[in-house]
Amino acid sequence: MLVVGGQRWALLRESTGTDLRILAERLAPVDLILVEGFKTYPFAKLEVHRPALGKPALWPEAEGIVAVASDAPAPADCPHPWLPLNAAEKIAAWIAAHRLPPHTLS
Predict the structure, then answer these.
(1) Domain locations in the chain as residue ranges
(2) pLDDT grade, residue 53 (50/70/90)?
């Protein structure tokens, strides 16, 4: 499917699998890529955690988490920065201030 507007266009294609490395290469050159999902990929992650949904937080076990955005208070044992989920400007400021060095997806 092709979506066209006055200033931009987007092409949507069917895929049999998703290789984040290939997709990231298609975005170059960019300063920052935000990705939803890909929990097992080896890159820095900002976890979005809503305890009211009844799912456990990932940060105690998952690798790569560098901060958590949540609508609940931070647990005392969390070693990561805890960001207010409903304050997008604070999350964006944290991301901008803590930019990690470029990472090659493996």
Answers:
(1) 32-97
(2) very high
Whether the bond into 29 is cis, omega within 30 of 0: yes
Structure confidence by residue, pLDDT tens digits, 74-93: 999 999 999 999 999 999 99
Round to whole Å and give the CA distance between 83 and 23. 28
Which CATH topology does 32-97 take?
Rossmann fold (3.40.50)
Worst-scoring range by mean pLDDT, 15-24, 36-45, 49-58, 74-83? 15-24
Identity (one letter) of the amino acid at 99?
A: R
β-sheet bridge partners, residue 3: 10
CA distance 97 to 43: 17
Length of the chain measured in residues: 106
Q: Is 88 helix (H, G, I), strand (E, B) or coil?
A: helix
